[in-house]
């Protein structure tokens, strides 16, 4: 009997556990002040990618049984700053339900006066309100998920306190600061998913990223219209669904990926040609694939 719902999740989970093993190795063995600091800096981008996989797990859990899911969520909590069920309440049951309504969206990009937030304002605001908003979603509509969220958050805090008791300096740079940085990076990245798109049509409400490296490291999160169209679909199937939807998605709802994939023009908007859109739908059009595979 396999533990995994989908065999495609085995390698990613092994990689997450490998990163956590390295975290613990640095925490337990680092004696020089600069080693945890260096590890913190090196881990910001990879742990930002892991945030995407934590997101996928909260949409469709990797394991068939609760215990391995909860244990993995402890690892995710230390790597991403998003603890068990926090994404599920805030994002799956909140944002995905309300993202077309900026008065209700848990990741809203509009101010109360209707103007558009800037990147830093949105990122800080969403990060600082993430846990209160997750709690509110659970309290109003999902008490069972709320109980899991609260108890797992308490456990995460107890474990983090234990790490600080063992070695406060290493715990700060190997765990606490990366948790805070990853939560901020996650909210910053989500700014570019929907900002400025006020519509009642799912096909017109998300920006998409087609960069192969970006989608490899984030589990196809770039196919964001497809993800919002069927948010319970496994990450491995999102490119196929995007191909089915490509003709319905406006050609200007595409972006470049962020750093480190693109250093100039990071998150810049793209407009696909008619040939490129046709190619996404599976039609063979000469010369249409070069830009998409960048």
TrEMBL record:
Keyword match Calcium: no
Pfam families with a match to the protein in the record: FA_desaturase
TM annotation in the entry: 12-30, 149-166, 172-192
Domain Fatty acid desaturase as annotated: residue spans: 32-252
BP GO annotations: lipid metabolic process
Keywords: Membrane, Transmembrane, Transmembrane helix
Organism this protein belongs to: Corallococcus coralloides (strain ATCC 25202 / DSM 2259 / NBRC 100086 / M2)
Organism superkingdom: Bacteria
Full protein name: Fatty acid desaturase
